Amino acid sequence: MKNRPKILAVSSAVSLDFRYGCTPAWWQIWKGMYEAGVDVIVTPYRGPAVQSPWWRCEPNPCEREGETFAAARDLLAKVKGDTHVRRVEDNPEDTLADKATREVISRWITPRWKKHIANILKREGDVDAVVVFTVPMSHLTGIPADLSREFGVPFVYYDGDVPMSLPEFGGMDTGFNIYHGADPSEYDLLVSNSEGGLPRLLEMGARRAEAIFWGADPEFFRPIDTEKRYDTFFYGYGDKFRREWMGEMIGEPSRRMPEVDFAMGGGDYKGDTGRGRLIGDVPFNVFAEAISASRINLNITRRSHATVPYSSTCRPFELAACGAAMVSNPHAGIERWFEPGEQIIVINDADEAVEAYRSLLDDPGLAQRMGESARQRVLDEHTYAQRARQLLGYLGLDKAQV
Q: Any long-range contacts for 351-359 (C-beta under 8 Å, 24+ apart)?
């Protein structure tokens, strides 16, 4: 008799090499499910399988095809004189090239993935749910409906990037507009990081939609005893949807405060970063140390998430779990997670940003108290162990927790 629930996770990626923003979060929520007593099986849509102590892996049946497509897309961007094939930020068109790509995928990639998932379900025999973690929904069209009938297993779609993933925003330039050509009604449940985005998912055809906010694993994201090397620190990839706020929080303040070091990790910043100092990539294994090495950490939320209420992003939870003093641009609903003025400072323009930076840099004790309070809030309400239990509850598997 089976005494552990079993979940098959079909993930956008498992390798951290691709720098997909959701992948580190998926690692943490899979770990949370393992700690809740779940047997987690992960199979990646892009890149290789990566084993861990918390899940077991199945291979990617189309790894070679995925890397060939990525290389062709990189070459196209290079020919255009850029690093990515860009989409506009407002209602990007579903182009003929997009439709042609989906047609090729539906004829070649989708059938192979259907066979791959079916083989896993046959071999395992007792999978309780298949959860698709932000794989482009249109690339799997038909699979949930067919395999749920054949195997009697529910299919769940977990979109960790609402509302930016919605057709009107189109997602990041590194990925696909995942809902064009898709049928959300194939899934028993759509899980979203955004409470404000749920009505839109239902409007697009979801039968049921529930929100699970991002969080942090406080064993990984924790305060590190290290030298303070930066005055302010921001980490991210690209300034799409947040270029204005990069200027308000880094560009203009850095010119007004020449004595202050503004460090920026990541890259692909096209707008005004003033005197901001680019330090390049920050590997995930030293990310918590980099946060702890800064006196102030910046949370600059993209417009798509900042304007749709209660659209969570990973960053404030990660910063808070590390005990960081956080300064953020306005984010509709952020008070749901952290207390403004006590656990995070929310600014409205460059003048308020400069005032907040000076206040925290002049009073390290204030910065420390804010960070300690924010970390306690994470421990109380925002761990991935708690998020994993919430997901299991939506799947009707919460009674199996240990």
A: 353/248, 353/249, 353/252, 353/253, 353/327, 354/253, 354/256, 354/257, 356/296, 356/327, 357/231, 357/232, 357/253, 357/257, 357/260, 357/296, 357/327, 358/257
Full strand arrangement of the beta sheet holding 262-267: 277-280, 262-267, 230-237, 294-299, 326-328, 345-346
| pLDDT number for residue 374 | 98
Query: Is the residue at 274 inside a domain?
Result: yes
- Where in the sequence is the domain holding 365, given as residue range(s)? 230-381
Alpha-carbon gap, residue 75 to 160, rounded angstroms: 28
> What b/e sequence results for 381-395 when a residue is b if at least 16 CB atoms lie within 10 Å of its CB, and e otherwise?
ebbbbbbbbbbbebb
pLDDT > 50? residue 181: yes
Interhelix angle 23-35/384-394, rounded to 10 degrees, is: 70
For the cut 70, the answer to whether the pLDDT of residue 83 exceeds it is no
Query: In angstroms, rounded to a whole number, what is the distance separating the alpha carbons of residues 5 and 181?
Result: 32
Residues in the chain: 402
| 224: in domain | no
The H or E element spanning position 5 is: none
With tokens 């209420």, the residue in question is: 309
The CATH number of whichever domain residue 245 belongs to comes to 3.40.50.2000
- ∠ Cα 349 353 356 (to 5°): 140
Does 261 share its domain with 336?
yes
Q: Same domain for 208 and 275?
A: no
Residues 73 and 94 in one domain: yes
Average pLDDT value over all residues in the chain? 92
If asked whether residues 177 and 246 sit together in one domain, one would say: no
Residue 401's pLDDT band, with cuts at 50, 70 and 90, is: very low
| Proportion of the chain above pLDDT 70, given as a percent | 92
pTM of structure:
0.93
Per DSSP, helices labelled H in 133-194 are: 143-151
Backbone φ, ψ for residue 348 (5° rounding): -115, -10
Considering the domain architecture, whether residues 68 and 203 belong to the same structural domain is answered as: yes
The tally of domains found in the chain comes to 2
220 domain residue, yes or no: no
Q: Please tell me the distance from the alpha carbon of residue 254 to that of residue 330, in angstroms, as a whole number.
A: 20
Could you tell me if 199 and 137 lie in one domain? yes
Is 222 within the bounds of a domain? no
